Amino acid sequence: MSRFMFRITGLLLAALLSAGTASAANDSPVGKWKTISDEDGKPRAIIEIVEKNGVYEGFIRERFPRPDDDPEGKCRDCPGQFKDQPIIGMRNMWGLKQDGAEYKGGEILDPKKGKIYKCKMWLSEDGKKLNVRGFIGVSLIGRSQTWLREP
């Protein structure tokens, strides 16, 4: 095989492997997500979702504050251990486990309202959107957001 053909073959193989890796990454909610408010359709934060031993949790890495947000960036209305803590770096999702196509059984904290809700989430078919539903009691009583995968 000529040197030219060897290089072309190597480039094609590398492209195929990286495409497979990108596709596999989209099969999981692990990564960074831009949250979009279900109230006004505007971005609110960047959440990083991590997985530890099959359990998924999220951390607020960046926020896009509004004029009515706490000027010091603290969670003033949050309960318990979250009260008056900085929002940036805060764990806001925990306890989610994969069950088929859904991740459920966990909770999510809404720092704006200072409330903790049960939570479930599921990926879009292409893995670029994450549907997140927070609810009280049963899933019918709650609200949903669609988050966008960050590069």
Protein architecture, described:
It is globular and about 40 Å long. Strands 1-2-3-4-5-6-7-8 form an eight-stranded antiparallel β-barrel. The longest helix is centred in the N-terminal third of the chain and has 23 residues, at 3-25. With 151 residues, the chain is α+β, with helices and mostly antiparallel strands. The chain has one domain: Beta Barrel (Lipocalin), CATH 2.40.128.520. A hairpin with a 2-residue loop joins strand 2 (43-52) and strand 3 (55-63). The protein is built from one helix and eight strands. Helices cover 15% and strands 44% of the residues.
Oligomer: single chain
Q: Say what the CATH topology is.
A: Lipocalin
Overall 3D shape? globular
Strand content: 35-45%
Q: Any idea how many domains? A: 1
Order of helices and strands: HEEEEEEEE
Low-confidence stretches: 3-24
Give the strand order of the largest sheet, numbering strands 1, 2, ... along the chain. Answer: 1-2-3-4-5-6-7-8
Instruction: Return the CATH architecture.
Output: Beta Barrel
Provide the residue-averaged pLDDT: 86
CATH class: Mainly Beta
Q: How many helical stretches?
A: 1
Described by strand count, sense and barrel closure, the largest sheet is: 8 strands, antiparallel, barrel
Write down how many β-strands occur, each being a DSSP E stretch of 2 or more residues: 8
Helix/strand-derived category reads alpha+beta
The helix fraction, in percent, is: 10-25%
Distance between the termini: 38 Å
CA radius of gyration = 19 Å
Summarize the model shown.
This protein has 151 residues and is of the alpha+beta class. The chain contains one helix and eight strands, in the order αββββββββ.
